[in-house]
Amino acid sequence: MTRRFRKPPLSYRQQLELLIERGLIVDDPAEAQFYLQHLNYYRLGAYWLPFEADHGTHQFRPGTRFSEILNLYVFDRELRLLVMDAIERVEVSIRSHWAYQLARLHNPHAHLDPALARRRDRWQQNLASLTDEVNRSDEVFIEHFRTTYQEALPPVWAVCEVMSLGQLSRWYANLRPKATRRAIADVYHTDEGLLQSWLHHLSHVRNVCAHHSRLWNREFTITPKPPRTKPSGLDTQWAHGSRKLYNSLVVLLHCMDIVSPGHHWCTRLRELVAHHGIDTAAMDFPSDWQAWSIWRTISKQPTGNGGGDS
Fold it and tell me: Which residue intervals of the chain are DSSP H helices?
């Protein structure tokens, strides 16, 4: 049975007093009140939950300090930024290959051909969504195509630049020709079904990060499909059965080694964890994860004129 919400609003000072009453050690009350003002009591609550001895009474474990909770919050914020950095590079790469293979194997306006869709109703939905993005765009190249050519939308290599990761995921999932799907997936040493799953999951992770939501110990409702024979050896680096962040990071690290050779993303992640003294078990990291090969491998250096960065 539901009941009416009757909790009164508390001033920042009252919020701090309540936390102290529940056993939280606050070394600098002025600093703690500052963060309550700018971060929101309810938002910080997700980070002090692991420090509670009893969730029913919200009593903290003896010795728990506000600084520990703040450290975890800052770690999660920096983790989101690092994850977004990798997702950006992976997203741009897959968009590029989606456009390249559609144009090469079909035609520059293959996205306007419903015959290439697994389901025409979804193709129509995807096309309507993409058209909305194009119409909202103020990019100069979009305006050039709009005023110069008669096609309903610019060619794939142009529209992909205004496409969200969620849209890319849906377009790839609804792409019917197996040869085209494989040509894109081969770049990332995966089969086409695995890449479809990874795209769907990463679009969800990206949305979590973009909305500044808690990432560190989140259980995902949409999880990446585990690898089997492809990519070779990646199944041994996987936390099978996990719904938390570890497998997302494995996917990103694998893709980063391909799209940004010579990167230092893995090192930055390890340093972030070490700097904040984070117990990685909350993200389902294996206890000996730093000894696993994917976390020890030094990324290959870029070839040609292209290359990775930090």
Answer: 12-21, 29-39, 41-48, 66-105, 120-136, 140-148, 156-159, 165-173, 178-186, 192-210, 245-259, 265-276, 293-296
What's phi and psi for 53, nearest 5 deg? -80, -30
Residue reference for tokens 């005023």: 147
Please give, one letter per residue, the 3-state secondary structure of 180-198: HHHHHHHCCCCCHHHHHHH
pLDDT tens per residue across span 211-263: 999 999 999 999 999 999 999 999 999 999 999 999 999 999 999 999 999 89
Q: How far apart are CA 234 and CA 238, in angstroms?
A: 7
Q: How far is CA 84 from CA 56, 133, 200, in A?
A: 35, 21, 15
Distance separating alpha carbons of residues 216 and 43, to the nearest angstrom: 14
Burial profile 170-202: b = 16 or more Cβ within 10 angstroms, e = fewer? bbbbbbebeebbebbbebbbbbbebbbbbbbbb
Residue 268's contacts (CB-CB under 8 Å, 6 or more residues apart) are 82, 310
Cis peptide before 231 (omega within 30 of 0): yes
Which residue do the tokens 């560190």 mark?
216
| 300 pLDDT more than 60 | no
Which tokens is 227 given? 């690898």
Mean pLDDT of the chain: 94
Question: CA separation (Å) from 70 to 62, 89, 197, 269, 297?
Answer: 17, 29, 34, 19, 32
pTM for the model stands at 0.92
Pull the structure tokens for residue 210.
């973009």
